[in-house]
Amino acid sequence: MTEKKNVYLTLHKNFVRTDIEYEDKVTGETKTFNQVTLPKGTVIDSIDVGSYQFSPLFANESKYRGENFRDIPLLADREVWLKRTILDADGQPVLDESGKPEKDTVKVMPQEIKEAVERQRSEYLAEHAKDSKDKGRQDLGSKVAEARDGSQALGARGDAARSRENARA
């Protein structure tokens, strides 16, 4: 049995930045890279890796989910290094002795990322579906009340019209 060579991670385009330009320090030539930010609430091995980032080689428009999603192919047998800048209590980056921001790094396998993102997405959708159902019920309840008030108003006008007709007869 052959193992899968790639693991495909699918994320909304808001979590994926493509073709970010930078100047190569050695050659001076302009190059590009991609950057993926994991959605908040993504948990791997009881560590919340939401807002951690990594730079995949490719980020393509999704074949199956449409233009608003991106497929990110990752090699199945290679670790992905997820990084996040460490912030102090005021939300400012903590700097190391060389003046660069300190990074928190978590090393995980691509399949773990895929499963965590899928779990986070299903929890998010379930939570928002529940919210929209509650909102829909409230909207339906208010629509029923409006319809009832309207029909009572029509009924009152209908009674008045009938009593005028009876008075003429």
TrEMBL record:
It comes from the Bacteria. Residues 121-149, 159-169 have a biased composition (Basic and acidic residues). Residues 121-169 are annotated as: Disordered. This is DNA gyrase. The lineage of its organism: Bacteria, Bacillati, Actinomycetota, Coriobacteriia, Eggerthellales.
